[in-house]
Fold Transglycosylase SLT domain-containing protein.
Amino acid sequence: MRAGRSRARPMVASLVGLTVAISGCAGAQSAASSGAPLQTATQPAPERSATPPAKEPVRQAPALPDPDAPIPKDPARLARSLTDTVAALRRATDDWTRKGDPAKGQPPEPMVLLALQQQRIYRYLARNPQVASRTYAKLPKALAGQAKDNVTAARDLLSLVHPISGSAKFRVQPPKPADVLLDHFRYAERRFGVEWEVLAAVMFVETKFGRVRSPSYTGAQGPMQFMPGTWKAYGMGGDVQDTRDALLAAANYLHASGAPRDYRRALYAYNHSQAYVNAVLLHARQIKQDIRNYYAYYNWQVFVVTTRGDRRLTGP
């Protein structure tokens, strides 16, 4: 794994504001990229006889994307880059879930780099609607639908962001293992009847699955960003900083606010913004359609929006 920025220690960033960590439970919103197409390496085929036929190149797996390479601006190249990235990401996800152990340790490097490339492409498309529309037309139908959901969600969340120009201090750390979180989500669903995919989408939007550990400027705390008064009412005596306690409290609050009968009403109670509600439901829909999208989102990183552009606080 390449040296990362995600460490359990305070980080000071100049001119930054959180990009997608939105203060939940009626808190005020917090302030919430580019990459070349995947390259293919080739090598000569080995000789098989004393008088071998002409050598032919052997096609290998595409090289992993550079985490800071520019995003293609041309819709055709951008569509190819996204198509290759998503296909490679799905293969990497299958390898991790079948041969690795998402319940322990950190994800492998291919997952991290490919998910980051996917995230950066969607962030770019969210800021460039005309390019996005032309890119959708060049994507396979299924991928075009996925791209529209992710880009629309990113655009909704970015609409809540107010870039800041000043100094801000953020505490970030690695998240709990993906399958540990998955167990917590499913337990909360069994206890309160709130779909685990919705809970996962809320945590993803709020703190990128617990990577952001700083309180919001309004005072929301913990991995699910609870305001103190809301935590007192729905936290059931738990620790607002504890991941399992926070997820149970979120399920408790959403259930009391209308879920699962009316998720829009419940999520609006969690955060008074229709853009927030739309983004959470779009991400939840993607997770429902393919659980591999949960593992991809798990590997998306924390970005900040500044008056001088985006900065990435976690990841490679």
